Sequence to fold (122 residues):
Amino acid sequence: MFKAYGEFWNNLFNFSGTSSRSQYWWPIIINYIIGGIIVNYISTANGYSIDTIYTFSDLTVNTVAKTIAFLVWLGTLSLKFRRLHDSDHSGGWVLISFLPFIGTIWFFILMILPTRRNRWTY
Fold:
């Protein structure tokens, strides 16, 4: 679990190669849990939403939060590409999730497919 999460951060900009199912799902689960806890803590401590800006410190917290969210989004995108490669699909399949409802279901199915011998394995 911790190894997979460490690999997530080490391969932040790596859009080639492969990632196994556990290397995909552990960072996804951990990021959702950590993100929820942090946003809930900051919102509770301030007494208002993290998006609300009243003071300079609110602006700083908001900017840092958006920067971290962007890095996590970019890492998750590269992780999705590597997971698709592991099941012998092109990274372009990530665009299927833009289709309402059916695209999300289809993308989930692609993420749970087992590893297959593929052209991206070195």
User: Anything to note?
Assistant: DSSP finds four helices and no strands in the chain.
